[in-house]
Structures are given as structure tokens and as C-alpha cells.
Specification:
Layout lengths: L4 E5 L6 H12 L2 E4 H14 L7 H10 L2 E4 L8 E4 L2 E2 L1 H4 L2 H10 L3 H12 L7 E5 L2 H5 L5 E6 L2 H14 L6 H17 L12 E4 L5 H8 L8
Parallel strand pairs: 1-6, 1-7, 2-6, 7-8
Antiparallel strand pairs: 3-4, 4-5
Bound molecules: cytidine-5'-monophosphate.
Length: about 220
């Protein structure tokens, strides 16, 4: 409990993952991408033919999920393994994010992943990103950041990312999918996406990631 935690929550495409990784790299702390856990669980459910509403089987799967993260160097995203198979590319797909947000609404799933997420808190500290890191998983975090951006800007960023990877996408469809996922994440009963009461809210719509990082740096003093 003495080990410091910094949480970065927000909707998809807000830049929270990149910011959290940069902070972890800067502080030389551990990093947890909690969304990746939900994504890996969605992938595993698909692999084992478990229906997205079968909460009992999903709970058992979440408890025994054989997932490993190997932290990348230089701010690179962690490599992710499910049952010893590297799944970094598969979990980044739009379908996997959407499937993850469906199973993430189940209380049994969230309960099973809670302890696993808390286990990432190791010395010298942890930076983590997700939807409920500051509200539910680490309510005592030293610094809580809630990063937002307009839905259009988030869709545009996602579109650019996909294009860079050579994956074709339609901006209008992306906007629609992002809005749908936001709605599911914000309207669910358990651990909905919302800023913690003591979170600092930062809108990144008109900011490059380096500017977001510069803005956050002074907030670290006294927190690490
Ligand atoms: O952040 P990312 O887009 O990878 O998350 C995928 C989905 O997992 C989200 O849409 C959300 O439904 C779920 N999630 C969650 N709680 C977290 C992180 C992710 O419910 N802490």
C-alpha cells in the first residue's frame, strides 16, 4: 500500500495509453495496460467458444487466464501473450475492443480481474491506464488523470493509426463504433467510465502527445 500509483483513465483514442507508457518510462515504474487484460479475455473467450454473456464461464476463464505482459523498452507497448502465443496484433483489432467492452460490463469478469490488476503494484511504482483505475482498482492513487478528446478527434487518430498499419478503415464507421463503445462503457452499472472525484481532467483534442506529457510533468512533483 506504500507503493505509489498513477492512474490514467479515459475513453479509447484519448491518448491515455501513450501518456501512461511515457510516464512509466520517465519514472522507471511498472506499467499496466488494463484494457489489454479485457481484450485478451475477449480473445480467449472466442478461442474457447465461450459466449459473451456466459458470465460463469467467463469468470472462470478470467480467474485462470494465462496472460503475460513483457514490458517493452523505450516507451514501446508491452508484448502480450495468451497461453504462450503472442497476441499483440489480434487484441488491437477493433472487433476485439468491441468484444472486450461487452464482457467488461459483467460483474463476475470485473471481480475476477480486479485482484490480477492490483498485483501489478510493485516497487518502485505503477502507472496504469484504463476506465476505472482511479475510481475502483486504485482509489488511493497518488495522482489521477482523466484524459479526454472529442469523439471526432479520437476517431481521426484511430483512422490514422490503422492507415499507418496498412489497414483500410472508414472514418464515419469508426466514429460510430467509438460512440457506441463510449456509450457501453459510460452507461454500464459497474465501474462505468467516469473521472474520479479527485482526478485532474485534461482534454487532449488540440494537443499532441508531447504537449500532453509536458502538461502532466509538473503534476508528478511530490507524487513519486
Ligand atoms: O482501453 P481499451 O480500449 O484497450 O479497452 C478495451 C475495453 O475494455 C474498453 O472499451 C472497456 O470496455 C474495457 N475496459 C474496462 N476497464 C478498464 C479497461 C478497459 O472496462 N480498466
Amino acid at each position: 500500500k506504500d507503493i505509489p500509483v498513477i492512474t490514467v483513465d479515459g475513453p479509447s483514442g484519448s491518448g491515455k495509453g501513450t501518456l501512461a507508457q511515457r510516464l512509466a518510462q520517465h519514472l522507471e515504474w511498472h506499467y499496466l495496460d488494463s484494457g489489454a487484460m479485457y481484450r485478451v479475455l475477449a480473445l480467449a473467450a472466442d478461442k474457447h467458444s465461450i459466449a459473451p454473456n456466459d458470465s460463469q464461464q467467463l469468470e472462470a476463464l478470467a480467474q485462470n487466464l494465462d496472460v503475460r505482459f513483457i514490458s517493452g523498452l523505450g516507451g514501446m507497448p508491452a508484448r502480450v501473450f495468451l497461453e504462450d502465443v503472442e497476441v499483440g496484433d489480434s487484441i488491437r483489432r477493433e472487433e476485439c475492443g468491441n468484444a472486450a467492452s461487452k464482457i467488461a460490463a459483467l460483474a463476475e469478469v470485473r471481480r475476477a480481474l480486479l485482484m490480477r490488476q492490483r498485483a501489478f503494484r510493485k516497487t518502485p511504482g505503477l502507472v496504469t491506464d484504463g476506465r476505472d483505475m482511479g475510481t475502483v482498482v486504485f482509489p488511493e492513487a497518488a495522482l489521477k488523470i482523466f484524459l479526454t478528446a472529442s469523439p471526432y478527434e479520437r476517431a481521426r487518430r484511430r483512422y490514422k493509426q490503422l492507415k499507418e498499419k496498412g489497414i483500410g478503415a472508414n472514418l464515419k464507421n469508426l466514429e460510430k463504433e467509438i460512440a457506441e463503445r463510449d456509450r457501453r462503457d459510460c452507461e454500464r452499472n459497474i465501474a462505468p467510465l467516469k473521472p474520479a472525484d479527485d482526478a485532474i481532467i485534461l482534454d487532449s483534442t488540440n494537443l499532441a502527445i508531447k504537449d500532453v506529457f509536458q502538461q502532466v510533468l509538473p503534476w508528478l512533483s511530490g507524487k513519486n
